[in-house]
Amino acid sequence: MRLVSRRFAMLGLSIAAVIAGIWIWVLASDPGPELATASVTVGDLEQTVLAVGRLQPKELVAVGAQVSGQVKRLHVVLGQPVKTGDLIAEVDDQPQQISMRSAQAAVSSLQAQLAARRAAQAQAELAFRRQETLLTAEATSRSDHEAARAVLETARAEVRSLAAQIEQAHTQIETARINLAYTRIVAPMDGVVVAVVTKQGQTLNSFQTTPTIVMLAKLDVMTVRAEIAEADVQKVERGQKVTFTTLGDKRERYVAQIERIEIAPTSIVNDAGSAGGSGGGSASGAPTSSRAVYYNAVFDVPNPKGQLRPSMTAQVSVLISHVRQALLVPTAALGERDMHEAYTVRVVDRRGRVSARSVRIGVRTNATAQVLSGLQSGDHVLIGEALPAPVPASSGLLGGF
């Protein structure tokens, strides 16, 4: 029994020695981690700023009514093209018709009164002339002469007063005529009906605000308002080339130029309101919100085919800089930057030896950087080390014990 146990022990030691030898051989033959390298190439490089924008018509007009009343008839539908002067809607004009007739009747009444006063003025002029003749011949008293003059002056004043009232009444007629014309709402420009706000039969009240009936837009030119992040807005300038696509057709690329960059974000209105309220802002008036800040870059783009529509989302790319036939290196190869704005890059020669070089960089993106000095085309730079291959587990061999 003791002999059998000794044999098993010797067998176990032999197997363990074999496993240890295999393990030592694996460790001795492992060349270490492989180096991940990339070549320095020659090509073009573009530095861009990405943004999201919203399409709106360059000219958008809210066509409203300046009179109150019921919309008797609506002459347009959504999407209908119209020309300047085309009839859009009609509002009940009975109150305006009554005002027109009343103003005209007032003018007629005043004109009749004026005719009577002019006749009285003519009679007063004749009486005054007789008094002047009699006074010259000393056939009348001076008091009668002065009374005749007073009657004449009164008649002349009444004529002038009635003439002024008639002129004022004519302005009332013009006002009534304008209000009557307001009951026919016409298109102020060529365009397309992009929204119908008021329905036929609806009652309008223009005493507080001007009610909008339809929204009219020119769609031949669209305006894009692209939101530029605070970190990128100082890179964007007027005149820079911009391209964008829409979510519906990413193959069609539209090209334009930035026309202006708004000086403040649209959120400044809300921030000012918050700062003005109690506890809404800091003591200096600056907003305390930590939300992201965006500035609008505005540009126009022709839309001759009408493919671009209001409120579409535009995926915008602003071209900041562009270099041609430049030395390019992966951004992942760049190491620390020193005080002279140079980067450390590890270069691998043909024998696999690694050496550090100081490299100056120009245009840079998240993936690629332009090399100004320090490298040549064809150089291999170290961008990382490959992970070592996993060693097979030995538990299968030892598990038999």
Report on this model:
With 401 residues, the chain is α+β, with helices and mostly antiparallel strands. The longest helix is centred in the N-terminal third of the chain and has 43 residues, at 94-136. Among the domains are: 35-45 and 322-385, conserved putative lor/sdh protein from methanococcus maripaludis s2 fold (Beta Barrel), CATH 2.40.420; 51-57 and 219-274 and 290-319, Beta Barrel (Elongation Factor Tu (Ef-tu), domain 3); 94-180. The protein has helices at residues 2-29, 94-136, 142-182, 268-276, 395-398, and strands at 35-39, 41-64, 69-74, 81-82, 87-91, 184-186, 191-196, 203-204, 212-229, 241-246, 254-257, 260-261, 294-302, 313-330, 342-348, 354-364, 368-373, 380-385. One of its GO terms (molecular function) is efflux transmembrane transporter activity. It is found in: Cell envelope. Residues 325-385 form the Multidrug resistance protein MdtA-like C-terminal permuted SH3 domain. Keywords: Coiled coil, Transport.
Overview in brief:
It is found in: Cell envelope. This protein has 401 residues and is α+β, with helices and mostly antiparallel strands.
- As a percent range, the share of strand residues is 25-35%
CATH superfamily of the domain at 51-57 and 219-274 and 290-319: Efflux pump adaptor protein, beta barrel domain
* Tertiary shape: elongated
Distance between the termini: 19 Å
Number of DSSP helical runs: 5
**What is the helical fraction, as a range of percent?**
25-40%
Given as residue ranges, the uncertain stretches (5+ residues, pLDDT < 50) are 26-32, 278-288, 386-401
The top-level CATH class of the domain at 51-57 and 219-274 and 290-319 is Mainly Beta
Known CATH architecture of the domain at 51-57 and 219-274 and 290-319: Beta Barrel
Instruction: Report the average pLDDT across residues.
Output: 83
Structural class: alpha+beta
**Total number of beta strands:** 18
- Largest β sheet strand count, sense and barrel closure: 14 strands, antiparallel
